[in-house]
Target: GAF domain nucleotide-binding protein
Amino acid sequence: MPHADSAYIPSTIQSKREFWDHVYTQIESLVDDQRVWVSNLANASSVIYNSLKAFHQFGEGERAVNWAGFYIHADLFPQPKLVANGDSPPKDVLQLGPFCGKPACQFIPVGPGKARGVCADAYTRASTILVTDVEAYPGHIACDGETKSEIVCPLIWETTGERKVLGVLDMDCLALHGFQDEDKEGLERIAGLVVRSSDW
Ligand code: SME
Model:
């Protein structure tokens, strides 16, 4: 099957639960044979975003999902080997990772006393945050003035004796109340899959 067909949604898929199970399976097959996180998150964000566009419950129009992607802690990005000037890059931040949608903010501070916004809160609390109305969320960072609701899910690395939050998976919607519990469960499963399938 051509890779692009991973974002195809068969007409037999009607409920959100079926939708997220299908998206999970498609991402699982794409991340199966390689472990580079940048590549896995790039394909995961593309499958999520394009599958959402192809699914009638999100689709195009006023209820569309307008952004899906990842912010990853700056420590996990490869360190540059050649730098043009002496400025050190920001440290305790989530940095924009692979995504689909319009351009978004590059850094989100997460250090003590600096954390602000839905992504930073989901990261520091290590739990999913479902925002039904972004304007009512204190500290929300508006990357796109058209976004009305949002869900952010942490990427949690767990081995025996170690638990670490690597970053977040973020999804935005043009409608108020765009996401429900089924979306939370679907995204959390996908977050677990991309964490397990990649080397960090
Ligand atoms: N709204 C997010 C910022 C990221 S964008 O939505 C892509 C926040 O409040 O953290």
